[in-house]
Amino acid sequence: MATTIHEPPSNSHSGDNGWGNLPPASRRLSVEDNSPASRTGIWVGLAAITMTFAAFTSALVVRQASSNDWVRFSLPPVLYANTVLLLVSSMTLEIARRKFARFTRHPSERRAAAPLFWLYVTLGLGLMFVIGQYMAWRQLKAAGLYLATTPSASFFYVLTAAHVLHVLGGLAGLLLVISRLRARVPTLRGSTLNAVSYYWHFMDILWFYLLALLWLKL
Amino acid sequence: MDPASPHLAGHPRTAPTSFLRRYVFSLDHKVIGQQYYGLALLAVVIGMVLSWIMRIHLAWPNLAIPGLQLLSRNGAPGGIMTPEYYLQLMTMHGTLMVFFVLTTAPFVGFGNYFLPIQVGAEEMPFSRLNRLSFWVTVVAFAVAVAAFLVPEGPPLSGWTAYAPLSALGAIAGPGEGTGQVLWAASVAIFCVGQLLGSLNFISITLDMRCPGMSLMRLPLTVWAWFITALMGLTAFAVLMPTCILLILDHVAGTSFFVPSNLVINDQLQSQHTGGSTLLWQHLFWFFGHPEVYIAIVPGMGIVSHVLITNMRRPMLSHRVLIYSMIALGTLSYMVYGHHMFVSGMNPFSSVAFSIPTLAITIPSTIIVLVWIASLYGSKLRINAASLFALGFISLFVSGGVGGIFLAQPSLDIMLHATYFVVGHFHLVMAVAAIFGIFAGTYFWFPKVTGRMMNETLGKLHFWLTFVGSYCIFMPFHYLGLAGNVRRYPAFVDDYLQPLMPVHKFITVAALLTGLAQFIFLFNLVYSRFRGKRAGENPWEGTSLEWSIPSPPPSDNFGGKLPVIYHDPYQYGVEGAEKDYIMQDSPEQVDSLHDEK
I want to staple A195 with a disulfide (CB 3.0 to 4.6 A). Which of A42, B149, B381, B527 is the partner? Predict the structure, then answer.
């Protein structure tokens, strides 16, 4: 005999039976993630980037072992300064995130200025990093090491350029965040800022990894 | 939950009125899904015509094919193709079919349309990225096809673009200059599109399921697309940098894949040193083998979904099918070296790749056994969709058996360069996946268009395609066992002459089977406008796509999130008003198959 019930049956196979996927009750700005898909999306994106650089790394290891034409050279010193810039930019972005949280609790024009200031600082530091990487390429070129000179130089250019391209993506994300915060009625969602922050910090981690790899292998 | 609860309020919206925003640059996942399907249809027609031209040339190498010289004056003077041009057409056939048909239609085509609906979401989480994903794929397609337009035509290195042939430039043969760079650029761009698609598929499955839709309540199609997206994410993220390195070898003079002291056409390639040809194969096949499963796993989901609906009972084990598909996806990364048994890599590596290759037959077999055991004793409704689903199983098994031979290095050394391999992969991956596409098309056409496809034409299409596919690809195995080499543009050696009648038979079968596809195309167009009106739920299905109008509204559920009460396949339910209970129906009876 069919009966009618008004609640979905309990199911012990997953954490929340999808109830956690309900839209947030409040649309108020919050630094808390208000879009789980954004949070998942950024991690998925970072996983893809990780795979790309894992492929580059395995290519480097195999290529180095496949022949005796691997030429070691000293890394351009400007890379270390660039590393500091990127590290500081992560810190300033975290400050921006905290200021944004304060702004969302008590929205006011004055409080909106604080996260904006630190976002601009982050953007500036990011741009300086990109310029610094360009300087590193110039230094390498001045030393007579071009893209096709040796396989080690090839990998230096490929890895650093691939990283810079991803950093430029991060800068685009920062510009998006800034534009949404600068709007007359700010439309920035906490999840967007969080996603851009995760991405930016990941660029840091990725750069440390690449620097270590280049330092060990070149 | 009270249906009036504000938590279930969605975002009602109507479709944009502007033609461009509604049909061309749409954010609607359903439009994007249809666009992907249309792109695959265009690619499959080109790919099929290319295969016809190649088959005619193989059977009658001196026959002038009218009009072929228009495609390439140098490649086919007087309509008779040069050996190089045969390889160029072969490359484009493989490239278009693998990337733009087998990946595009079953995965991002059907997946885009139905995954959001089946999980109970109103839209993709990143709609703009989704739209970008499609248009990036269109650019990739245009770049690939543009290779026909450059003076020396498309590359001749095959869809696998083995180095060093693919990395040397124009000296390696016609199409190896600009054509090969276009190929690599096209594939790299395609990877970007697929990564964006996978990002959406994974995020929506994990985070945008409607209330009550636990993971185990997801239909098998959703699981298949989700697993495929995970594979796509990791595989395409590797292929993209690989293509970038190949382009650099071409345009920047680097030596990633070109070894030292290579002499091509009596010229020493002194600008390259020390590259590794095996490196290309490792990187390519790390993508390439998961790609096989990217093509076939969505078909497994579609076939399961179609069969369950027509059997009127669930599979013997929903979970076992899910876990087996996960096992396939996981193992697919560990077996790629079986493509390289004859590449010159360390023989011990061959053993390491052979064992997981044999192991992958276990989840494959489990899936097939669950299908067959579930079918046994069922009163299957015979229609075009269920016939193509049965055809999928048949082809997958027939092709898969060949794989057990090829998984063993000692046998593969003999068979690798022969038509045995061509027969194997066409059956198990290509034609089986296309049968999955056909099953999905016949099954979901009423939902997409609001009209039924013509069943008589559909069944005729099935039988001609099913028999034709076996007539084409089974003899390939016999040719391979007889030592017939593959990738040859003509068989002029004496020892191959006795096999020529088989080649002619295959060519005739390919032409007829290809012609039978026009029945499908006619049915598709005719039914779109003149087909019998379909109701909301013509197949009496239980998943969410059957709970909304046909075709679905722009916002899928009319601005209100559905609530899920049941597992996806509640068929043959005793005591229910009908013999099935929809996933979003609050009706509850004692004999439900719901997992407790």
Answer: A42
Set out the domains of chain A in order of their start, with CATH numbers.
Answer: 34-62+77-217 (1.20.120.80)
Cβ atoms of B391 and B470 closer than 8 Å: no
Which two three-digit tokens encode residue B420? 């045995």
Strand-pair partners of B533 = B451
Which range of residues forms the domain containing residue B449? 382-488+491-533
Distance from C-alpha of B420 to C-alpha of B406, rounded to nearest angstrom: 9
Cβ atoms of B248 and A154 within 8 Å: the answer is yes
How many domains does the structure of chain B reveal?
A: 2
Closest-CA residue of B relative to A44 is: B199
Can you tell me the mean pLDDT for B183-195? Answer: 98
- Predicted TM-score of the model (pTM): 0.93
Element (H, E) at B264: strand B263-264
Q: Are B206 and A6 inside 8 Å of each other by CB?
A: no
The neighbouring-strand residues paired with B268 are B263
pLDDT tens readout for residues B329-365: 999 999 999 999 999 888 888 999 999 999 999 999 9
Q: How confident is the model at residue A145 (pLDDT cuts 50, 70, 90)?
A: very high
3-state secondary structure of B369: helix
Question: What kind and span of H or E run contains A87?
Answer: helix A78-105
Q: Cα dihedral sign for B487, B493, B495, B496?
A: positive
> For residue A10, what pLDDT band results from cuts at 50, 70 and 90?
very low
**Is the torsion defined by CA of B309, B311, B314, B316 positive or negative?**
negative
CB B243 within 8 A of CB B191: yes
Beta bridge pairs of residue A6: none
In this complex, is the C-beta atom of B252 within 8 Å of any C-beta atom belonging to chain A?
yes
Cβ within 8 Å of residue B70, ≥6 positions away: none
Q: Please check whether residue B1 lies inside any domain of the structure.
A: no
B452 touches chain A (CB under 8 A): no
- Listed in sequence order, the residues at least 6 apart from A53 whose beta carbon sits closer than 8 Å to its beta carbon are A159, A162, A206, A209, A210
Report chain A's mean pLDDT, rounded to a whole number: 85
Cβ contact A102:A112 at 8 Å? no
Cα-based distances in Å from B456 to B303, B453, B529, B536, B596: 20, 9, 17, 22, 42
Query: How far apart (Å, rounded) are the C-alpha atoms in residues B515 and B498?
Result: 28
Please identify among residues 318-377 of chain B the ones whose CB lies closer than 8 Å to any CB of chain A. Answer: none
Instruction: Chain A: give the shortest CA distance to residue B203, in Å.
Output: 5
- Total length of chain B: 596
CB B208 to CB A21 under 8 A?
A: yes
Q: Could you tell me what percentage of chain B is helix, strand and coil, using 3-state DSSP and rounding each to the nearest 5?
A: 65, 5, 35
In a domain, B474, yes or no: yes
Residue B478 lies in a domain: yes
Domain end marker among B533, B551, B567: B533
Q: Of B513, B533, B553, which marks where a domain is finished?
A: B533
Q: Kindly state the average pLDDT of the residues A87-111.
A: 87
User: Any CB–CB contact under 8 A between A1 and chain B?
Assistant: yes
Cβ(B237)–Cβ(A51) below 8 Å: yes
Question: Would the CB atoms of A9 and B577 count as touching at under 8 Å?
Answer: no
Q: Answer whether residue B505 is part of any domain.
A: yes
Q: Alpha carbon of B422 to those of B343, B364, B461, B563: distances in Å?
A: 18, 20, 24, 47
Q: What is the ipTM of this complex?
A: 0.92
